[in-house]
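Now for our target.
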Amino acid sequence: MVSAERLAGPWTGLEKPILSPNTEGAAPDGKHCDAPTACRFEDLGKVIVLYKAYPLRAQDGQPRAPFGSSSVVACWRPGEPAATKGRQVPIPGRGREFCRGWVGGVQLLRDTERKSWYALLNGSPTSPEDISHREPAPSLGSWAVCKDPNPEGAREVDLKHSPFPYPERLTPEQLNAGLGVNFWRHHLLVTPGGRARIFFNSGKNGTEQMYSAVPA
């Protein structure tokens, strides 16, 4: 965690990370903690963090993806030396979700009108083969909805709607622009005029580029 009075800095960081791998037992984050997204609740005096967790050992609760990465929710209060880790949201190796092989980075977003939380996430139906945690293609994107007003609640992956097409459904125009294989490292922004735009990385290995997409 780092802080500053101005965006231009100077920035001051805590001496130690607030999230570190738990190497004991079969923790879902025994190897790495990365790709965090956070939201601060000033009235509650806490920060909710979603981070990507890579297991060090095979996960019994992920029968079809024992080494698949997941997303874990944590809570941190300013002034505390470390965050308190909570549940996995969602967990790979289960169900029909497009991210049943592994779960990638998650952007936490607030639906003020419906008083609920959702996330833009990426993942793959193909599971890593071993502890190397290589993320097999294809990387796809979709939404995960938390119907609980509490952002720490469980999430349901939306199986019907996705901001991205599947690679095999790309148009000739999209293929000529370089899209293909993977859709990941994405981030959603809303302009002052209310237009939503997603920036993302796509393309074959070695030729990946950044792209952006807006609602049709």
